[in-house]
Amino acid sequence: MSATLTLPDPSVPPESPRVRAVTDFAEISRRIQDAGLMRRRYAYYWAKLVGMVVVWAALITAFVLVGDSWWQLATAVVAAVVMTQTAFLGHDAAHRQMFVSGKWNEWTSLVVANLFVGLSYGWWQHKHTRHHGNPNKEDVDPDIDLPVLAFTATQAASRRNPFTRWFAAHQGYFFFPLLLLEGIDLHYQGLKRVFGREPIARRGVEILFLGTRLVGYVVLVFAVLSPVKAVVFIALHLALFGLYMGGSFAPNHKGMPIVPKDLKIDFLRRQVLMSRNVTGGRFVDVALGGLNYQIEHHLFPSMPRISLRRAQPIIAAFCAEKDVKYTQTTLFTSYGIVIRYLNEVGLGARDNFTCPLVQSYR
To answer: Where, by residue number, does the polypeptide cross the bilayer (predicted)?
Structure first.
């Protein structure tokens, strides 16, 4: 019996890196779907939403009962944690993790973000969608285009006067103190968007919800506390909220490669190589609202938060098969990486465009 040698068809071009990349993502998508990780988890999210309302009601009741006391500073700390955890729920709804219906997710996010947290859903959605589409891409990702911090050598070089150059060289050390102002900035950016000229869906609803939340919050605080205590309470509450929010999002991409604006990378590698997971078990899962599974979240944004933990070993193993670098570290190690990265960029000592994909995709 003779063997037949089959030669490749010369009319069919060899598989290109881009074709392989599309095939890779289709393959991991099938594995995730087959594992049932994209199905909606209604019981989980309804429990979260009902629990959110109960916790807020208990917190407001406690605030009123404690009255005009400096013990309310402890209430401010609890309120910052509750508000951040509530913001995580708004983030889940904005990514359509909760319901099949887009309108249910949108309205849930509007209520949670605008009415409970005081942040604009429309502003956040516009900004966050651009980030998800091109994480760490120069001139595209709004998260690395900030007026205060330099994330690229080009941004650092644009600092002209002695103070801004000195600040850029030490910016890593200022990163976490600056997060104390993040709570105020998040509120300001949302209000700027809803009252600005840029298009935004449901502007009237957003203004109504934001107005109710922000005015109601200030009235309640000043009704219960004397003016000095009220100002201190609000300052502490917003400072800790900003620190918690910023500290939850910072480990995800800061210190990972920056993508040149003219470089195109396939979806799977664009999301995995520019993202970092944070390890630490169930406590970190809860504390960071699932953002510690950043790679899984970026690959499958609509995957329910509770399913990310099960998806992690599947995606990590797949990346190992395809020789795609999968980065994960502990929370405090990631903070150290962020600080060093920002200082090195500010000093011009880091080539933040170093990436093995550049040559293969040019």
So the answer is: 43-64, 70-92, 205-225
CB neighbour list of residue 286: distance below 8 Å, 6 or more residues apart: none
Domain boundaries, the chain: 17-347
Integer CA distances (angstroms), 210 to 44, 48, 76, 187, 203, in order? 27, 22, 20, 9, 10
Extract the residue ranges of the chain whose pLDDT is less than 50.
1-12, 14, 358-359, 362
Cα–Cα distances in angstroms (integers) from residue 220 to residues 37, 63, 111, 168, 341, in the given order: 42, 9, 19, 40, 42
* Cβ-defined contacts of 74-78 (< 8 Å, 24+): 75/233, 76/233, 76/236, 76/237, 76/240, 77/236, 77/240
- Residue 260 burial by CB count (10 A; 0-12/13-18/19+): exposed, middle or buried? middle
- Could you tell me how far CA 36 lies from the centroid of its own chain? 24
- Give residue-wise pLDDT tens across range 199-253: 999 999 999 999 999 999 999 999 999 999 999 999 999 999 999 999 999 999 9
Torsion angle defined by CA atoms of residues 298, 299, 304 and 307, in that order, rounded to the nearest 10 degrees: -110
